[in-house]
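note to self: dont lose this again. the chain is below, predicted strucutre after it. 150 aa total, dont forget to put it in the shared folder this time
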Amino acid sequence: MSEVPEKAVGQYQISLRDAEGHLLPAAVELGCRDWTEVTGRRTKCRIKLQWAGGVIEETACHFFESFKRVQEKLALHGLLPMCYRASRRIILTGMAADMALGRKAYRVSEDGQLLRPTVDIFKTGDDVEPVSVEAQEQFQAEWWQLFREQ
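---
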C-alpha cells in the first residue's frame, strides 16, 4: 500500500462550533489511496482538518468513518463540526459508502423517511443539528432498528 500514491479528492471549508457558540473556520483536505490485492479492493480515505487550534488527521476505509474519528478528537477540544456528517439525522447506507466512499449520506425526516437526494457530508444546511458521535450513533441504531421492523 505504501507504494500506491494518494490522490487528492477534495477540499472544503467548514465551521466548528465551540462551547460558547462561536464559529471557527476550518479547512478539510481529502485524500484517497485505492489498490487491489489478491483478496480484493482496498481503500484508505484520509481526512486532514486544520483550524487555528491545531490539525487532526485520520484515515479509514471511507470518509464517513474517517470524519467520525476526526469528530471524536474535536470533541476533546469542545468543538462540533457544522456539517451533515456531524448532524443527528444522518444515515450512511452500504450503497452510499461504496459508491461515494462515504462522502454522501441520507438525511432522515422527522417521520423516519430517508430524504433524497443524498447530501455531501462536508456541506451544511439549515437542517444540520450537530451532535456528539455518541448521540448520532444512538439515532442511527434506533433508526436501523425501526427500519428492520417495518
